[in-house]
Fold each of these.
Amino acid sequence: MPKFILNDEAVVNSYGFRILTAGIDLTRFKLNPVMLDGHIQSNQNVIGSWKDITLEGGKLLAEPIFDMEDDNAKLIAGKVERGIIKGASMGIMFSKKDLANENGDMVLKNCSLFEVSIVAVPSNANALRLQMDGKELTEKEINELCLSLTDKTINTDNNMKIQLTQLALVALGMSANTKELSTDEIESAILALSKSRDELQEKLTLSEEQLNAFINKEKAQKAALTIQMLDEAVKSGKITADKRQTFADLAAKDFDLAEATFEALPTKKKLWYRCYHTRRNHWSNYYGRFSKTLLR
């Protein structure tokens, strides 16, 4: 039966990290070197065990022993013998502190091996079974863990020089002829730009509040003046009470037009005033005609 490579520390797995072979604790595994079918942890999926576990040149090797009394194990053993299945995958436990990013190289320095499975595609993400701090991790959790470590370690060299486009330099308030900038210089420029933006936003917010206060005050003044104009217009007879709402709506839409309209409307005369002036004009006309008759 051919030996399987359980781990090669030179190879990056599908999650983006390597496992140091020398850091794999075999104590638990050697006490029970169980072989599972595809990491399924049940008695029915135990298809054998492993022997002759060795470390050679950064690789962890082992030879499979299949339970030939089990139909499923016998079937898988035949596929291994014929070279159809060639993959094995570890089930390991580790602590978060043991996974590190070393200059962009994600490395799991220490872990404990507790089972090894026969798998169809060992490089597939689902073929690696991982437990961290006693909890089995999902593929999403493993990816998030690796990403969190990557984010913390990107561009840690403070002396690294960066070339920016002229547009980016101008946006940061620097000369377009600037050749290279250190990360510290770029961070300082970004912080200054961010501070200026916050100060401008604060001023804009204050200006907006002042403008709204002015607009509200003007609306209140116009509303009070509208009521006053309507009261005076009704009282003076320029409009009747039933037209009050019509002119109120006009003032709400165009205050200046409503004000000009009120000023142009004639004041309605009292009834006694009209009667008095009508009679006066009548007698004046009569007296004029009578005087002309006498003078003939």
Amino acid sequence: MTQKINTIIDRPVTDLRHFTSVLNAEPQVQHMWTAIREKTYRDPTDGLLRIPARKGDIPMAANDDAVEWGSRGRYEVPFFPNLGGSTGRYRATIPNLGNVVSVLLNGNVSQGATEAWSLRWPDGSFWWFQPNRNGSRATANNGSHWDFTANPSPFDQWNFNAVVIDFAAGQIFHSLNNGDFDQGVSPSGGTISMPPAGDVTVWMGEGTPPQPFAEGRISDLAIVHGDVRTMPELMTAWNEYNQTAYPG
């Protein structure tokens, strides 16, 4: 007797496969981490958790053993409570970023003034990003803020944030959920300069100590060596992935 079995592949699986193929085909996406608890492991050298790289070969390392978890669909992803001192945060040190860098984030914030990620150099210089601050979005460079005009990340909702920092041109841009890119403006008249040469440490769930990521979750973070405004296929695929890849 012959049995015929029909297999239905639903939209989320299709989107996930499409996103993965686009991600792997884009050489400028050099580092990405999908922070699902079931994929983590403990490094025998220090016993702390590691989030393996989805692209690239550098894992995200837990800063301590105080990590917490929240839900995204049927998965557990890092939850960052309102604590200072880098408690429960993750970091990875990567090679020099070059003249233009884009940072892609899937996150869910519950309070304002959240610092979702930061880039830090050995000389103490830094950049960090707030998805929602006083009804806007903002980045900071060594204490100088750049504000964006509208559409901060809504609270208690998963959003896709893309930030482009053009060090050479002295400009910064932000897009929410694959919308138009706003150019940041510095109310204090701050300027953007080239960061020092050498490695940079990417922090997830924190900006600059002791300012914490005030209640939020992060599922995906990527570093792109280049301007994602020139990569529409990647941006569209990422936005679809953020909407459908974490079913309940």
